[in-house]
Amino acid sequence: MFTKLLNHEILNLLKSRRVYLTVIMFLLLFTTVFVVRVLDYQKQVNQYIEDVKVNDEAMANIENYSHITPRAIQEPILFSIYNEGYRIQRVINIKFYEAIIETTSINAERNMLFFPDTELDITFLITFFLSLFILLISYDSVNGEKQVGTLRLLMTYPLKRQSFILKKMLGVFIFVAFVFTMPYFLSIISLMVIYANLLTINFFISAFFYWFLTIFFILFFSLLGIFLSTCSKSPNQSLVYAILTWMVLCIIIPISWDYIISPSLSNERIHQATQNYHTYTTQAKRAIEHDLPDDANLRLVPMGIWTSSAGIENDGIHEMSLWGYDETYEQSSRFQSHLYENYYPLIRASEQAYDDVYRVRINTENMMNRVFFFNPIVIFHNLSMKIAGNSRVDHLVFLHTARELRDDLVNLGATEGWLFDYRFYAHFKEEYNLGSREEMLARFDGDRELVWEYVNDIEENAEMYEMEVPVFRKYEQPHFTLAMMIPRIFESMVLFVGSIVGLWVVIWWRFLGYDVR
Amino acid sequence: MNQIILVKDIRLMFKDLKFQIFFLILVVLFILSAISSSVSFISKQKSFQNERNRFNDLVADGQHIQLIQLLQNRMLMVASPPSPAVLFSEYDNYPDIINTGIMFYEPEFSNNNIGLRRMFRLNWLFILGMIMGLMMLIMSFEAISQEKRAGTLRLLTINGVKRQSIIWHKYISYLILYLIVIIPASMTSMILFFALTGTWSMTFMLKFLLIILISIPFASFFVWLGIFISMSKNHRNTIVMVMFIWAFFVVIVPQAAIIIAKQVSSIKTVIEYREIREQARYDEMMRQAEEENDIMSLSFEDFFALLASNINVADEKKNQALQREIEENMRQTRMIRGIAGISPFMQFVNISEIVFDKGFYLLNFQQETTKQAINQIKNLMIEQDSRDETSHNLLYSYAYVQRLVFNRRGETPFSEELFEHPHLLFVTEIETDDVPSKIMEILMKLIPILVLNLVLMVGAVGKFERLDIR
């Protein structure tokens, strides 16, 4: 009897023109969004390949230690086709003394006049359209039967009320789950064929958990639809309820959190954290501009023979490469140790301060999950980012990894010694060292023009210094494991399951006392 | 008779549960939007003030090094101060600040608002543009089918009421309903916003009223659409259609426009553009180097003056390349807007930009203002320079030359005197079109939606004439 009813229910759904329309629209949207996202991903992959090429070229053309600026380049995540997440830019330039607080891009196409924000991905499709479609399919599942009179008829059969509501729920659930699962698995298989060489275990873990989560999502909304249909007498009324509920869950709750609750909770703390960051940056700036001791000030030594300026103003990037006078090189060595001792710790402190901004935002997001535990759209949004591996937390982890690489590099320079000595700027062989300034002037009888000519001569003809590139760690993309995934999603998953069970109990209780006449 | 029908229509709608719920939602949304916009307005005002103070401090810090930095870096800033228009929309797709070097218009666009990536915002644009379309569709999607089902439609025609007047009364009553919902809620929201921020401005009140007036044709479009749909046989199937049409206009078209325009009118990557710019500059420098043979005969000062003017010319070449780049970006942006313009929602956004002097509309004027400011400052500097004995041609010897001179001679080529008009480096007043030409432009932009209205109206009335009302 039960299976018969279930079969009947699903067949019934298939015959309805409304369901028919809904399914076709969903499949159309799914295909469109998927194709668009794959095209976009292909673009990202191309950019990534270009980025890596640019980086490799730069690393191959290193002329001295000061030119070592490795980049941490993150490979675009294949699963980002389904869930875009936060990240847009995936490159971090690792420079010796520079604070790493945000990512940049190298080969990106960026329209400077228009900052488009697209949010169109499969996650949006599920949270926005699928939820609406489920409600539109199921809003009249109980009171529709009541209106036609079949409900009364059914209740005369030896059939428990529980099993009636269960088969209603299962009918909608199995139908929608099938409608979602089919294109989903097809798309996964097509991705496996197209990007066979980019597949990692990450992708399969993400894909499985994402599917699992969507099934829960569908379950919740089919329950909700049935609940709404027991709440009012006429289907027309429950239709209004359904659209209203959907609007509240999908639009009003998220936006009022984003624009009212979240700013009032976090703005003050973010402001404080930014203030701290600015304090450290100002201190750091002072350390290289005002508090620079005379014996480490590059402006006070003759710089006439460096190929370019010491560039303190230019964010501490040093491009001096020609051999200089002895004094100059000693001064620059002291300058470097001054930076290492005074400037560098401040930079790291400023990074720590800036991290608080990220932490506040992450905390507010997690809090939203807990506050709106009854809203599957909020939970799905948050969880899908954690599953895909492109949440704010992952962004922070990326920054941390890049900082570790930079610290390693700086420490390597300090332990191996080249950070503080002539090799850091060396561009020409050691034999072209000019010696002290006095000696040089004496050699040319104090004629500056002759010195200048001599230096020009070196610049044109001398042999280059050949450096041994130090062995430093390169960026490696972290990989998920199952053990990493489960603690990430455990809490939200429990909330999710809890709200589903709660809803089920409410429906059960409600339908037991439902007037079927 | 006609009046009775109209009044009855409206009264019936008042009793409708849909209407009551929507009215409640709208009031709540309007109030919430006033609160959230005032929060964002106040924080924007604060950060704008901070930025201004920072700028003034930098300018007033009487060191020549600072002046060199001003010249070297992009320190002319054109930014419009935050306006109460945030209540309507933040327009954060477009840059709100232009930074540029003082010597050339070499802009760097920046936007302070990027961060929150959500398709739905909490402001009037969201309510009037998105929710209102949905509301009018849901209100009217069973306008005819309901009466047909209840049999009252047949009754009405028996009583000698013309079919045309039935459909017109439906339409007018929905529009009146729209105004009844919108006006009190939006006025409350507006007054709340002004009270919370303390910016009582008559101009903006009028602008908000104007935007409500402009929203009427858009609401009427959705009403006609709803009436048109309501003539289909199965009215419950049509709800799926309704939702799809709404999502198509509000979500899919604007999003798809970005993706399509990026494919069709693609721009080069950041790196390629930079290479083109630098190449233009380098080529010009090389050309000049080939032309001049007797550098050795020049004196030190003349040599640097020559070098500086050469750099000047080369930078101008680079600047021309940059202009072409901006043109290409502009072309892509226009294409995005053109494709998105299919959706009445995006047309509404475009018109509101003109009303509030924001977004893409403002961008053109911002660029004009920046160029004018640069010229003014340049002239003032030349004038100041000619009075100053110690300066070695301040105007020419900027940036690059400054470094060379610094390095080779160990002294500064600049006068110790500050630029006399530092306030000019921070521009906040950007003049846009005058009122009549603005109104003309708005009317021009209203034509497409009016035409759509007309087409739907003719279609709906025609269909209703031939409708089987049994």
General description of the model:
The complex is a heterodimer of chains A (517) and B (470). Chain A is 67% helix and 1% strand. Chain A has 517 residues and is an all-alpha fold. Chain A has a domain at 7-34 and 114-263 and 490-512. A two-stranded antiparallel sheet of chain A has the order 1-2. In chain A, helix 1 (2-15) crosses helix 6 (161-194), helix 2 packs antiparallel against helix 3 and helix 7 (201-231) runs parallel beside helix 14 (482-512). Chain B contains 15 helices and 4 strands. Chain B has 470 residues and is mostly helical. In chain B, strand 2 (97-100) and strand 3 (108-110) form a beta hairpin. The model of chain B is unreliable at 402-411 (pLDDT under 50). Chain B has a 4-stranded mixed β-sheet, covered by helices on one side. Chain B has one domain (2-252, 345-465). In chain B, helix 7 (163-197) packs antiparallel against helix 8 (202-230).
Shape of chain A: elongated
Work out the radius of gyration of chain B.
30 Å
Strand order of the largest sheet of chain A: 1-2
Distance from first to last alpha carbon of chain B: 22 Å
Query: What is the CA-based Rg of chain A, rounded?
Result: 32 Å
Query: How many DSSP H or I helices of chain A?
Result: 14
Main β-sheet description of chain A: 2 strands, antiparallel
Quaternary = heterodimer
| Fraction in helix of chain B | over 70%
SS elements, strand count of chain A:
2
Query: What pattern of helices and strands is seen along the backbone of chain A?
Result: HHEEHHHHHHHHHHHH
Mean pLDDT of chain A: 84
Number of helices of chain B: 15
Cα distance spanning the termini of chain A? 22 Å
Mind describing the biggest β-sheet of chain B?
Answer: 4 strands, mixed
